[in-house]
Amino acid sequence: MESALSLSTSRMLARSPFQLHGRSRFGLLNIYPQFRRNINYYLPRFPFKSHAPHNLQVSASISARPSSELRKKPNNSEPDDKLTAIRELFVRPDINIDAYIIPSQDAHQSEFIAECYTRRAYISGFTGSAGTAVVTKDKAALWTDGRYFLQAEQQLHSGWILMRAGNLGVPTTSEWLNGILAPGSRVGIDPFLFSSDSADELKEAISQKNHELVCVYDVNLVDEIWKESRPKPPNRLVRVHDLKYAGVDVSSKLSSLRSELSNADSSAIVISMLDEIAWLLNLRGSDIPHSPVMYAYIIVEIDGAKLFINDAKINPDVMDYLKNAGIEVRPYESILSEVESLAAKGARLWLDTSSVSVAIVNAFKSACDKYSSTSGNANKNTRAVANGPVTKSRGPAAVYKSSPISFAKAIKNEAELEGMRNSHLRDAAAMAQFWAWLEEEIGSGAILTEVDVADKLLEFRSRQDGFLDTSFDTISGSGANGAIIHYKPEPNKCSIIDPEKLFLLDSGAQYIDGTTDITRTVHFGQPSSWEKECFTRVLQGHIALDQAIFPDNYPGFVLDSFARSSLWKIGLDYRHGTGHGVGAALNVHEGPQSISFRFGNMTPLLRGMVVSNEPGYYEDHAFGIRIENLLCVKEAHTPNCFGGVDYLGFEKLTFVPIQTKLCDLSLLSTTEIDWLNDYHKQVWEKVSPLVEGSAYQWLKDNTRPVVKP
Predict the structure, then answer these.
(1) Peptidase M24 domain: from which residue to which, for each copy (predicted)?
(2) Which of 479, 616, 480, 621 is nearest to 537 (CA)?
(3) 70 has pLDDT over 80
(4) How far from 36 is each of 132, 139, 187, 464, 505, CA to CA, in Å?
(5) Cβ-contact 433, 691 below 8 angstroms
(6) For the segment 560-598, what is each residue's pLDDT rounded down to a tens digit?
(7) In this predicted model, what pLDDT tens digit does every residue of 365-389 receive, in sequence order?
(8) How far apart (Å, rounded) are the C-alpha atoms in residues 134 and 141?
(9) What letter would DSSP give residue 357?
C-alpha cells in the first residue's frame, strides 16, 4: 500500500515542492510543535537549560577543573590581554554589564561560519564548531560537548575553565552565572547572535537570581577588541543552482510558500537560516568554508519578496534571475528597518523563534507597540499567536511557528536524490584512488603527516567532475588523535601517520550535485585483539542501523540504540549522536531530523530524508574508531502492515570498502557477514568501472568476501 508520502519520480517533480499527496510538507510541522531546530544535532548549542535528573541537586559551587591543570604544556599569556580588554568594556556607560556571553554562531545560527564571525574562537583559543564562552569580571568559562573535550583541553588558553557539558555535576551557563554573580547583575549578549528562543530561555533562567539580560545592540564586545586584525566579511559571487539538480524551480517554491502563508493567515515571513534561503531560491554561494551558502536574509510576502544581501555578490545574470522571480534586492544591513516597516503596514509576520534572532523579533515587537500606541488601540489590534493562525486581527501581529522550509528542504525530491547518488559514486572513486595511494606509501616506508594525508585526499577529490570544496575540515587522526572526535590536524602541530596504530579519516566533499560525508578507520599493520573487538562492535552497530525497519513517522531517537547495543553489551559507548541530516548540495549538517540518544527531537524520519550512520568508540589518548555512511530513508516492503502503518528502511548512498582486517569475524553473526559481503559486492559493481590501475586492484582486494571461521 502506498502511504500518504510515497511518490514516484514523476509525481515528485510534477507537484508543488511542498505538497506530498495532498499533504503539505510545510504543514507537517504542525504535527510536531515540540520540534526545536538546531543545525548541530549532537548537543544543544546553548546549554542554558539543565538536563540533569530531577532528583539531582546541581550546586553552583560545582565546576570543572581549569584546562590549564590538564595540559602538559602551559599556554602563553596572550588571552589574558584579551580578557582584560573585554572586561574594560563592561564599565562603559553605554554597556554597563557584569558578564558577557559569546556563542559560536553568526547572526543566522550557522554551525560553520565565516572567519570574521569566529568570535568565540578568537577570545578563547578553542576552535571547535560548538561551544559557548562566558566572561565575567573575574572569571572565564567555556562549555562544549563530548566531541570536543580533548580538543578544548589542548586549545583553551590559560585563565579559562573548561565545562564539559552533559557530564554529571557540570552546571549550565545560567546555573554557573546564578552561582557566581551577585543578585541583580546584568548579563550582556549580542542580540543578533542569539535566537529569540535561546534569549528567552536564558532570560528566564537567570531571573531566578534577579539578573537582567541586556541586549547590547550597538557593538559586539569581541569585535571591539579584535579591531583591525579582524578578517573582512566575505564578498564572493552568488551562483544559480541548476534546475536539473534542484528539481523544482524558484517560482514553484515561492508559490507553495505563499500558500502556506495564506493558510496560516500570515502575510509575510522572515527567513534567516542560510541553507533555507539557498534552497528556496535555488542559489548557492561560498561565503562560508565548506557550506555553499551566502550571507543574506529574505522576506517573502504574499505579493512579493525581498532579498537582503550585499549586492556586490550579485552579478548581472543572477540579478536578472532574481528579477524574473519577482525578488527585489536590498542591502543586507536594512533587515531591521524592513521588519519595522512591515509592522507599520499591519503585517502578520511569521517568525521562527528557534532560528530568527532576538534582534529581529524585538524590532518587530517594538514596531507593533509603536503602531498600537499611535493608533490609540494599544493591546487591541496587535497580538502574537503561537503555532496557529491569526484571525480577526486588524493590526500587525507576530505568528510564531517553526520555519515551513525546514521539512521541505529535508525531504529530497528525485532530482536531488539522483544528484546525491551520482556525487557519492564519484566521491567513492576518489576515495579508492586515495586509499590505494596511501597504503602503497605507508607500505614503502614513506613519512606522512596527518596534514599530508588530508591534502592528498583533497587532490584526488578535486579531480572529480563537479567538485567544489570539502564539506568540512578533514578529520585525519593517527593513534591518540583519532580519539579527538572532531580533530583538525594543523601544520607543524600534527602527528606522523603511525603504521602500528589505528588511523581515523572522516571527510566529505561539496559537489555541484550533492554533498558527501564518510568515515573509515583502518590499521596499516597488525591490530590488537582489543582494537579488533572494538572495531567489530562499532561495525555491528553500523549494520544494525543500516538494516533497521521502522514505522512511518517515527522520530530518529528511536533508532539510536540499534547502533549502540553491541557496545553496551560490554559496557562501552560514545559521546555523540549516531546520525545527522545532510543537505543536497548544501550543508553537511542539516535539520530537522537526527538519530541521537537525546530524545527531545521528535522530528519523524520520512521518505527522502538523508541521514548519516556513524557509530564509534574512542579511548582517550589511545585511539578512535568510527564507521560512517550516508543513508536515504525509503519505503520498506514488509509482509505485514500492522494497524495500516507503512514501514521504512534505508538506501545506502556511500560505497567505499570497510577494512575487513579489523574485523573479529568470530564476533559477527552469519547475517552480519552476509551484510558485509553484500555491501562489498555493491561497492565493487558500482565503483570499479570508475577507477583503473592501482585503485582498481585496491578495490578488488578490499571487496573480497569473508567467511565466518
Answers:
(1) 418-635
(2) 616
(3) no
(4) 19, 31, 24, 37, 31
(5) yes
(6) 999 999 999 999 999 999 999 999 999 999 989 999 988
(7) 999 988 877 765 544 444 455 555 4
(8) 5
(9) B
